[in-house]
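Teaching note: in complex prediction, the entire set of molecules is handled at once rather than each chain in isolation. The prompt given to students was simply: 'Predict the structure of this complex.' The entities are:
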Amino acid sequence: GQSLEQPSEVTAVEGAIVQINCTYQTSGFYGLSWYQQHDGGAPTFLSYNALDGLEETGRFSSFLSRSDSYGYLLLQELQMKDSASYFCAVRDDGGYQKVTFGTGTKLQVIP
Amino acid sequence: DAGVTQSPTHLIKTRGQQVTLRCSPKSGHDTVSWYQQALGQGPQFIFQYYEEEERQRGNFPDRFSGHQFPNYSSELNVNALLLGDSALYLCASSLGQGQNEQYFGPGTRLTVT
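The expected output is the structure of the full assembly:
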């Protein structure tokens, strides 16, 4: 099966940069996705990495190293509204329809 | 452009009862996946529907069943409710089965007493 590990909580200052790490164990790999979820809200897709390297989308960037089974989400110029939970996710190797989510990282942005 | 909608928003049921949750996918999407999210946890995949058939299933018992209609909307049914079924049930839609970008609905908060 799949397993993904993330830090449970991260605190960062408004305007700063924060990195949220994700390590995964899979027997097959179809890429790493990131989702944001505010308290009481629905998960929102942020990014997807299929190949090694950095993908940038505005203030958010996502990195993947397939050889290390590791990825991270980088949030720059943090804003208070970035306070949310962030999940990494992989598609199942036994059937690509199933998506397994990590345990989630709760980011708190402080003034 | 309507996003993913789910109904009801909240639901309270008693152990042993049955519940049906509903989902309408984002306009143009044909695939619906259901997830269960316990408090403080990541979403857990229940199953996915495409072309009105269940395509893959997560580690959930047969008490969890579903359906997809010709208009791509979907239902999740849970029989013989247990206290442990209390969770947020999320529906996600996409165009095609293997898409990495899924659009989630606001969820149905189910409480079993």
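Point out the following to students. Chain B has a mean pLDDT of 94. The interface with chain A takes residues 4, 33, 40-45, 48, 50, 55-56, 58, 90, 92, 97-98, 100-107 of chain B (CB under 8 Å).
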